[in-house]
Write a structure and sequence with these properties.
The protein is an alpha+beta fold. It contains 10 helices and 15 strands. Strands 10-11-15-14 form a 4-stranded mixed β-sheet. The chain has a 3-stranded mixed β-sheet with strand order 1-9-8. Strands 2-7 form a two-stranded antiparallel sheet. Strand 12 and strand 13 form a beta hairpin. The longest helix is centred in the C-terminal third of the chain and has 18 residues. The site of one zinc ion (ZN) has 8 residues, from loops.
Length: 376
Amino acid sequence: MSAEIDFYELLEVERTADEKVLKSAYRKLAMKFHPDKNPGCADSEAKFKQINEAYACLSDPQKRAAYDRYGHAAFQQGGGGNAGGGFGGGDFGDIGDIFETIFGGAFGGGRQQARRGADLRYDMEITLEDAFHGKETEIAVEVSQTCSPCGGSGATPGTAARRCNMCKGHGKVRAQQGFFMVERACPTCQGRGEVIESPCKHCRGEGRVDAEQRLQVNIPAGVDTGTRIRLAGKGEAGPFGSPAGDLYLFLHIQRHSVFEREGTTLLTRCPISFTTAALGGEIEIPGLDGAVHVIEIPAGIQSGKQLRKRGAGMPVLQGRGIGDLVVEIHVETPTKLSARQKELLRDFQATETGDESPQSKGFFDRIKDAWTDLTE
Ligand SMILES: [Zn+2]
Ligand SMILES: [Zn+2]
């Protein structure tokens, strides 16, 4: 299981890397992690897939620009719906093509592509608090799994599939089409090369059955809307015992009543009284970490001013450090004044020279100048 890793980090290049640097970095890593060089190593295969995905994005100027602006969120479809169908299209589909384009089939042309099960998507909503602390949780997914009575073979236990007569076990048949000889999957065995005469009753010969799967998921601290967590091999079972696809958890962070989040920054708007604004003081903001953050208000603060408290924001995903808390100040004009308060304010008003409010003074001076210019 891995959360989303930065594409530039994956390819071990600077964010400013040009096309040439990118290509050579990709070439080096792809050679290193290619499944043919690391047979049976799931980690290498996963890494290979990630590298390809990263390069597919960064080698396309348009996709790269979108990625630089929005990160992984640039490539996610809208939310909604649980564990939908596979999403083989779009950003996952063209990996093979890219590899072929760059290496020109350097790795044995005839390599039989194992038919993997489909990747699945599972959308999940979590609170901002959960995103802050990280969370261990369990999800239930309805997904096809390898049939256990027949072990995925599709044949009644105790029997076996026999070689297909039509294609002699090749799985492919040749046919003349116009001038060309075309090869296509055998219609009798659907390309398997084998025929099941006595199908397993449990899975009706499919080799897999739909079943609810309960999965433990570890959501790391610092995740954001758009973070994808990959659960390797937890997608749909492959046909006839071939490897399962992956399950991708797409995270969505719920709206919070107090904080807005921008990356690792937490933002909140805080109203303060006009007396505190004028005289200065302190406010206390309870943070997501459970601590109370004391923010100093300097005397004479204006509405819209942002005060920053370092290290009181969101944790960095899979990294060190914590972002900042930003408090935007809104000065509240009092509305329900007692007779005594009004009297005090009138007294205050009587002593005003205009210098207490330089912005207002400046504004009205400018209006006066404009008016004088007009009348001269
Ligand atoms: Zn056949
Ligand atoms: Zn079965």
